[in-house]
Design brief:
The chain has about 475 residues and is α/β, with parallel strands linked by helices. The protein contains 17 helices and eleven strands. The structure holds glutamine.
């Protein structure tokens, strides 16, 4: 059964169709892996064992009848705990939502349900997805499966750790400023942030809605294409969802990069640790040997993106999180009579430090006095989006590291600004609304390194084709 945990989602799918094993056995294998590893990893906040086994049995009936719903029918998955799941607790890793059981599924979750994927449970994250190492969770941190003394990255660290440890075959995450790509890189799995609007955000608890996207964590690029095909598409419940029809993401995914043009972002080399730079340059050489042309390109505003991201993201977060006041939503402080005090106490006790820091920063940048700073961040965002789009009118994709460094030891980064810096290379695609994927490529002392490919808006098919070539060339 252990072999299930090492399979890709599509590999398992083929085995299920050949009836070599059942969906129930696959779910049980992941549940057994959890028993073994969860005490150390804490990738899951909630495991829905009984529901999972019932879903797996239903998948087995369809498979036995020769009528699977999709290639993902019967494949066990995990979902980040900021995506609503009907009847399954959804906490955003916050005391604020500790007892919240949503009455509906997020659109991405219901699409996967209709595809037959089996929900095993909900994964840990930084509180309200604010953080880069899954350490701000109110329910305790997640560890990196490769070296549990190290962080898994964040905020979708639970999703990345679960997939890397074989506790699920793929997972959903969310990516506002890199939260799927960065943990994927640190855990050695594939992480995709699709184009803004590609997957519905309906049922994703908002952080910064102009930046938030549902993201995917998978074992390889092919699985990523399969999960994207199951989740992408227009949804009338999300006003920012695109009407453009999804591509045939798996078609031609193995066709390689011959004739493709890529641009290595020059500024990223100086900002990355030597081991990350080395692997990135090795990926460049590999791409060239596979027939792609790689030029260097300068994006001088790269470093300005981080402060711009924090200004815009925190401003949106501060107004978004205003709803959690202990009256309409969330944790309510007891023993207070006055309503002002009720709101103050509920928010003070319900939110953790990092969330409060973002709310304060966001409230500050939205004051009249800070208007210039806010406007400057918005201008920078427009400028980034247009220069990246201009570069991508010529180049098929841009190349950057995903994270400036490999997974660090838990407790090593205490300063929030040092933590924010780990998102340096992932925020530009978020700001520009472009699709970006992190692919494992090489390692340093056994710790995985990820390279990041940023593609054209709605060009996920070509992006994943390039990712697949990088992946196959990594040996
Ligand atoms: N790590 C980034 C932050 O702290 C990104 C978070 C995210 O993408 N949800 O804001």
């Amino acid at each position: 059964m252990d072999k299930v945990c090492g399979m890709t989602a599509l590999g398992l799918s083929a085995a299920l169709r050949r009836r070599e094993l059942s969906a129930r056995e696959a779910a049980l294998a992941c549940l057994a892996r959890m028993e073994e590893r969860e005490p150390q990893l804490h990738a899951y906040l909630t495991v829905s064992r009984d529901e999972a086994l019932a879903e797996a049995d239903a998948a087995d009936r369809r498979l036995a009848a020769g009528e699977p719903l999709s290639p993902l029918d019967g494949v066990p998955m995990a979902v980040k705990d900021n995506l609503c799941t009907k009847g399954v607790r959804t906490t955003c890793a916050s005391r604020m939502l500790e007892g919240f059981v949503p009455p509906y599924d997020a659109e991405a979750v219901s699409r996967l349900g209709r595809a037959g994927a089996v929900l095993l449970g909900k994964t840990n994250l930084d509180e309200f997805a604010m953080g880069s190492d899954t350490g701000t969770s109110a329910f305790g941190p997640t560890a990196n499966p490769i070296d549990p003394s190290r962080v898994p990255g964040g905020s979708s660290g639970g999703s990345a750790a679960a997939v890397a440890a074989g506790e699920a075959l793929f997972a959903l995450g969310s990516d506002t400023g890199g939260s799927v790509r960065q943990p994927a890189a640190l855990c050695g799995v594939v992480g995709l942030r699709p184009t803004y609007g590609r997957i519905s955000r309906y049922g994703l608890v908002g952080f910064g809605p102009s930046l938030d996207q549902v993201g995917l964590v998978t074992k390889d690029a092919r699985d990523c294409a399969a999960v994207l095909a199951a989740t992408a598409g227009f949804d009338p419940h999300d006003a920012t969802s695109s009407r453009q029809s999804p591509g045939a993401y798996l078609d031609g995914i193995g066709d390689g990069v011959r004739g493709m043009r890529a641009a290595l972002v020059r500024e990223s080399l100086a900002e990355a640790e030597p081991c990350v730079r080395r692997e990135l340059l090795r990926a460049v050489a590999k791409l060239e040997s596979l027939g792609a042309r790689v030029d260097e390109l300068s994006l001088p505003f790269l470093k300005d993106m981080l402060p711009a991201y924090h200004i815009l993201g925190s401003a949106e977060a501060s107004s978004n999180l205003a709803r959690f006041d202990g009256v309409r939503y969330g944790f309510r402080a007891s023993g207070v009579s006055d309503w002002r005090q009720l709101i103050r106490e509920s928010r003070s006790r319900g939110f953790g430090l990092e969330v409060k820091r973002r709310i304060l920063l966001g409230t500050f940048v939205l004051t009249k006095e800070q208007r210039d700073a806010y406007e400057k961040a918005r201008r920078l965002r427009r400028k980034t989006a247009s220069s990246m789009a201009a570069a991508l009118s010529y180049y098929d994709f841009l190349l950057l590291p995903t994270s400036p460094e490999v997974a660090w030891k838990r407790g090593e980064k205490r300063d929030p600004v040092a933590m924010y810096r780990s998102d340096l290379f992932v925020v530009p695609a978020s700001i520009a609304g472009l699709p970006a994927v992190s692919v494992p490529f090489g390692e340093e002392n056994g710790l995985p390194v990820g390279v990041q490919l940023v593609g054209r808006a709605f060009g996920e098919r070509e992006l994943l084709r390039a990712a697949c070539a990088v992946e196959e060339g990594r040996a």
